[in-house]
TrEMBL record, chain B:
One of its GO terms (cellular component) is plasma membrane. This is Branched-chain amino acid ABC transporter permease. InterPro entries: ABC_transp_permease, LivM-like. It is found in: Cell membrane. CDD domains: TM_PBP1_LivM_like. Signal peptide: none annotated. Keywords: Cell membrane, Membrane, Transmembrane, Transmembrane helix. The lineage of its organism: Bacteria, Pseudomonadati, Pseudomonadota, Alphaproteobacteria, Rhodospirillales. Pfam families: BPD_transp_2 (PF02653). It is a multi-pass membrane protein. GO terms for molecular function: branched-chain amino acid transmembrane transporter activity.
UniProtKB/TrEMBL annotation, chain C:
The keyword Transcription does not apply. It is found in: Cell membrane. CDD domains: TM_PBP1_LivH_like. This is Branched-chain amino acid ABC transporter permease. The chain crosses the membrane at residues 15-35, 42-61, 98-119, 131-149, 185-211, 232-253, 265-293, 305-324. It comes from Terasakiella brassicae. The lineage of its organism: Bacteria, Pseudomonadati, Pseudomonadota, Alphaproteobacteria, Rhodospirillales. GO terms for biological process: amino acid transport.
Length: 456, 368, 338
């Protein structure tokens, strides 16, 4: 246990997010001391933000979209978090605690402290997400923040957490930037990224569609869309495909027909939709209404590819998803022990299988807790060191490495196809190929970025 | 500006500055929310200078908020982390934008004015999200980076710098006091405007613009000044947002964000001095505290009820709290517009008047 | 050439949709003088009539799903399928066209309640207050829908038979590459029919005559002993029905969610002011104009000259029209010209 200095708590100035500015600013000391509730509760004299000290419990902050376009994804993430908390506290059937290796957790909370949580609503907006994260840090004393269902949000919250000195375990975020140019020492991502999607898709595309193809990209006009377009384009051009056009579409356009009509006589025979969430559902639905899936061009069958799939999106798109190729981080149909334990536990609790978002959020919570246990402390720099370079197995996707250089997890990536003949209502995605981790691993330097200091 | 107004501003200032002491009682005593109170209060007070004083309903004020944020961020990135230049630049630049947009939009009134401002704001938002990404960083939002030039303070520390005021950091409670002082100044100016001949002119425009025109007076310069001033308030609020949290995202320019400041102003009491600020507090309190209520909390609150009734109550109440807080807001807003067009301020007045009457009736009765 | 033809077709398609969506808004404004910010919510309610019908038709029995082995899962088999086999399946397939039938009475009722219960109190209030109260109503309606249906879009597909696309190119002797989805063509025709019906109703019936007279001079019509208020309630109901039908027909194009109304609200206002507040022909003309402009602005060739134009074209047109011709394209002289 890191030295908990209780005596300091009363003299300290105020509760704030930025440690450095806190050192500088003493001007309003008087007012700060008077502010009641924090000091007694959070023992702010210790070495780091929201040190639980001698408290019997710790608080984690689950920051997910509860309103807005990704609300259902957020709801699934929240279910996974609650399940993870149960398992950490030794309730329920234990889920992946039974399969995770190496495991330091004992099922008695973390470092003997009971795990509690608070929730916040990101509204899928960077502003709202940061504000809600701040609330959890400042008001609720959250020791770690996790969640997010959009790369913009994840990056924004991650940088906030770095400044605050609070660990951020990213949820569903797929942009290369999260662990690339915007990576942070206090941020970790278990989910895969656009680059890995490209690498994983490449060989399957070659096998299924050949090397003589002409691709047309429709791309959501923001950071994530661009990184994905770039990654996929590099891959397909590497195969020998020609890129006919890359067209940016506004986010939330709703009706994409004016962008789809030019595809019809462009001579392209593959349409790549770099869209996510609602946009992807709409653009895919409309592309299929325009008959693109039944079309013959250059003597070949026209194909649509959605590089990032999720089962929840597949539900939104209904039958249109059938036969469409893409990648996904994890699927409940995986047969390894970890996945099965998780699906069983989740299914029993809620009556349906978890989504990839739920999986990554569940794993992140366990990984954080485990790293604290390994480090023997909640003190972030030590916990970070315990998780950097951590090699584990039994959490789905085979052996996994949390790479120290960029805090990105490397594990198997799934290439999937919308299931033509689903055997059950949840069986929407068929696993075409499990691309091994070695294949999708890349040099950490290619995306640049700085992790920043351990101590803030 | 009479004695009464001075007292009002003094009390207002005292209440704001002591907020950290007592806001904790209602669970609002943490810096982030207090900062929001101050910033959105300022935004609403500025919005009121246009809508409350002149009756012109703008549905695009969030654009100025966004422009203020982006300008302040660029001041942090290019010049210095000191908040003063950022605030000044943001106010000036959003003022310029307001001048241009107002000049065009004020050629029409009524609903057309609303639609014009809405159209301009949506154009700004859509551009910020897409083609202007080099300036705005699109969806991710504009943030500080270690490689920013920052020509005025070259000696930067390791990692990312933080906003400051001559060496004093501006996050946490310091940030709140910084915003609070600007809010009090903004409130003071709005009171002065309200009492000035300029303010009278605006109120006259609101009550009957045609009559003003018949007297041979050109109302446009007055309206345009009001528009620019309120745009500058919005820009200032936008700058404060990035002072306390250096990230500028495009969402804060969306038309629904403009709708929010309209809600605030109406809830509190349009055209009154304090009303918009109260409205801002109510909405931000809802958004941050009410929205965090979940079933567990509700079960606790209604725990004294028998299980069966508790279940029904909790499921009914959970419609309105937690993630359903927008519903409460919508209902409250409708009730106010229908029954209490003067907002919370009118409510206070009515209650006060009733008390007075009762007292009078009482004393009258006593005299008999 | 083919590219231009396709974009034109797309513009006409969009235009028809815009015109239909904006029709109810301009009707309410033209007759009742009310600026209805809950218009988008009416559109959304229409869409959810289709969603609800789909829910009702595919009401299911829970059957233990043997294919899921990890935990006890249940799959849902619609009762209609159990009882009627293929006929039941077909009925579910035809949800959207069937929804049109139930939408008419439902939206009529919604319109009636809304007008009697709320809007009526605001005839004499300012436009700003009308905007505010209907804005509040829109928030309440969409939150209620969200509480029940969730926040994610719900797919409501068109009948199988029209889910593909038509070889429009072949019809005109152009390239075979020119195809267009059947449903969008149907939407276009439907929009035409509804707009035509509304026009005919207002032009050819006595009711329509009274309403038009009421639009021109409400007080005089009231003075000659006609209960204009009752007529106006009917008009509001009619507008709600038209908007609701537009919503139902749009569900196969765009899976609806609770927020879909807000997205169309701004658009329909832009269409209405460009066409002229309260002008029915104006709304139709403006719908087509904006649809075609938007379609062409999205072409790569145009975007390479004017980057970002596809994002702002609609608003840009609105601003220009409002400045050079305040009463809109076909607005009546003197109506809301200021």
């Amino acid at each position: 246990m890191i030295n908990v200095n209780q005596t300091g708590s009363k003299t300290l100035v105020d509760m704030k997010v930025n440690r450095r500015s806190f050192m500088k600013g003493t001007a309003v000391a008087a007012a700060g001391v008077a502010a009641p509730s924090f000091f007694t509760r959070n023992a702010w004299g210790a070495d780091f933000v929201n040190n639980p000290g001698n408290n019997k419990s710790i608080t984690l902050g689950f920051n997910v979209p509860q309103t807005g376009a990704y609300a259902d994804e957020g709801a699934d993430e929240l279910r996974a978090y609650k399940l993870a908390v149960k398992h950490l506290n030794g309730e329920g059937d234990g889920g992946m605690l039974n399969t995770m290796k190496p495991l330091s957790l004992k099922g008695n909370g973390v470092l003997g402290k009971k795990v509690e949580f608070v929730t916040g609503d990101t509204q899928t907006k960077s502003d709202a997400a940061r504000s809600s994260a701040k609330r959890m840090i400042e008001k609720d004393g959250a020791l770690m923040i996790t969640g997010g269902s959009s790369s913009g949000v994840a990056i924004a919250v991650q940088s906030l957490c770095q400044e605050a000195g609070v660990i951020f375990m990213a949820g569903l975020t797929h942009s290369n930037d999260t662990t690339g140019k915007d990576k942070r020492r206090y941020g970790f991502r278990h989910f895969f990224n656009a680059y890995m999607s490209g690498v994983a898709l490449g060989p399957v595309l070659k096998e299924e569609l050949g090397i003589d193809r002409r691709a047309y990209h429709l791309t959501a006009d923001y950071t994530w869309g661009w990184t994905q377009e770039e990654s996929i384009k590099n891959t397909t051009e590497g195969l020998g495909w020609e890129t006919v056009a890359t067209v940016k579409t506004p986010v939330g356009a709703g009706d994409f027909s004016q962008y789809i009509t030019p595809v019809l006589n462009s001579g392209a025979d593959v349409l790549i939709l770099n869209h996510y969430g609602k946009d992807m559902i709409n653009s895919l639905t409309q592309s299929i209404q325009f008959g693109l899936k039944d079309k013959q061009v250059n003597g070949k069958q026209f194909e649509i590819i959605v590089p990032l799939f999720s089962r929840l999106m597949a539900q939104g798109a209904g039958d249109n998803i059938k036969g469409i190729l893409g990648t996904t981080g994890w699927n409940w149909a995986l047969q390894d022990a970890g996945s099965q334990a998780f699906v069983k536990s989740f299914g029993q609790e809620y009556g349906f299988p978890p989504s990839q978002a739920a999986h990554t959020c569940y794993c992140q919570t366990l990984l954080y807790a485990n790293a604290c246990e390994v480090a023997g402390t909640f003190y972030p720099p030590e916990m970070i060191k315990a998780l950097e370079g951590f090699e584990f197995d039994g959490m789905g996707n085979g052996p996994t490495l949390y790479r120290a250089e960029d805090h990105q997890c490397f594990k198997n990536v799934l290439v999937v196809r919308g299931n033509q003949n689903p055997s059950s209502q949840f069986d929407l995605l068929e696993i075409v190929k499990e691309v091994p981790r070695e294949v999708v691993t890349y040099d950490a330097k290619i995306f640049g970025g700085e992790l920043g200091p351990y101590k803030v | 500006m009479n004695m009464k107004d001075n007292i009002l501003v003094l009390i207002f200032g005292a209440v704001i500055l002591t907020m950290p002491l007592w806001a904790g009682i209602v669970g609002a005593g943490y810096p982030d929310l207090l900062q929001k109170f101050a910033i959105f209060g300022l935004f609403a007070i500025g919005f009121n200078i246009l809508f409350g004083f002149t009756g012109y309903l703008s549905f695009g004020h969030a654009a100025f908020l966004g422009i203020g944020s982006y300008t302040a961020m660029w001041s942090f990135k290019l010049l210095t982390m000191n908040a003063i230049p950022a605030v000044l630049f943001a106010t000036a630049v959003s003022g310029l934008f307001a001048l241009a947009i107002g000049f065009v939009a004020l050629r029409r009134s009524g609903i057309y004015f609303s639609i014009l401002t809405l159209a301009f704001a949506q154009m700004c938002y859509n551009m910020a999200y897409s083609v202007l990404t080099p300036i705005t960083n699109g969806e991710t939002g504009l943030t500080l980076t270690a490689t920013d030039p920052r020509i005025l303070d070259a000696a930067t520390t390791e990692g990312l710098p933080s906003t400051e005021l001559f060496g004093m950091g501006l996050s946490g409670y310091n940030g709140f006091y910084f915003c609070a002082i600007i809010l009090i100044i903004g409130f003071y100016i709005s009171v002065r405007l309200y009492r000035s001949s300029f303010g009278l002119m605006l109120l006259a425009v609101k009550s009957n613009q045609n009559r003003m025109k018949y007297t041979g007076l050109n109302t446009k310069p007055y309206l345009l000044s009001a528009f620019v001033i309120s745009g500058m308030y919005a820009g200032l609020a936008g700058a404060l947002m990035v002072v306390i949290d250096p990230l500028a995202g495009a969402e804060r320019m969306q038309w629904t964000a403009s709708g929010e400041v309209v809600l605030m102003t109406i809830l509190g009491g349009v055209g009154t001095l304090l009303g918009p600020f109260i409205g801002a507090i109510v909405i931000k309190y809802f958004e941050n505290i009410f929205s965090a209520f979940n079933d567990a909390v509700l079960n606790q609150v209604f725990g004294f009820l028998p299980d069966f009734i508790q279940g029904i109550w909790v499921s009914f109440a959970s419609l309105f709290v937690g993630k359903g807080w927008h519903l409460t807001l919508g209902v409250l807003f409708m009730l106010i517009v229908i029954f209490l067009p003067g907002g919370a301020m009118e409510g206070f007045r009515r209650i006060a008047a009733k008390f007075k009457k009762e007292k009078e009736a009482h004393s009258a009765g006593g005299a008999e | 050439m083919e590219a231009v033809f396709l974009q034109l077709l797309n513009g006409l398609d969009k235009g028809g949709a815009y015109a239909l969506i904006a029709l109810g808004l301009t009707l309410i404004f033209g007759t009742l003088g009310v600026v209805n910010f809950a218009h988008g919510a009416l559109f959304m309610l229409g869409s959810f009539c289709a969603v609800s019908l789909q829910k009702v038709l595919s009401m299911s029995m829970k059957v233990r799903d043997e294919s899921v082995t990890f935990f006890e899962a249940y799959k849902e088999v619609p009762y209609l399928e159990i009882w009627f086999g293929d006929a039941g399946k077909a009925l579910i397939d035809w949800t959207v066209p069937l929804a049109l039938l139930i939408t008419i009475p439902i939206m009529l009722g919604v319109g009636y309640v809304m007008e009697r219960g709320l809007i009526q109190r605001f005839y004499k209030r300012t436009h700003a207050e009308q905007i505010l109260v209907t804005f509040g109503l829109a928030i309440v309606l969409q939150e209620l829908v969200k509480a029940y249906f969730g926040a994610n879009p719900i797919p409501t597909p068109a009948p199988e038979i029209v889910s593909g696309s038509a070889h429009v190119g072949a019809w005109f002797g152009l390239s075979d590459a020119i195809v267009y989805p059947w449903w969008r063509l149907i939407y276009f025709l439907f929009a035409f029919a509804v707009v035509g019906a509304v026009f005919a109703f207002l032009q050819l019936t006595t009711f329509g005559m009274v309403v038009r007279a009421g639009m021109a001079d409400r007080e005089t019509v009231g003075l000659i002993g006609i209960d204009i208020d009752k007529k106006f309630t009917t008009v509001f109901g009619l507008a709600a029905v038209v908007t609701g039908l537009a919503g139902v027909m749009y569900t196969p194009v765009l899976p609806p969610d609770y927020h879909i109304g807000m997205e169309f609200l701004v658009l329909s206002f832009v269409v209405v002011v460009v066409g002229g507040m309260g002008s029915l022909p104006g709304a139709v003309a403006a719908g087509f104009l904006l649809g075609i402009l938007q379609s062409f602005a999205s072409m790569t060739e145009i975007k390479s000259i004017l980057p970002g134009i596809d994002q702002i074209i609609i608003y840009l047109v609105a601003v220009i029209i409002l400045l050079v011709r305040p009463r809109g394209l076909l607005g009546r002289e003197g109506v809301m010209e200021d």
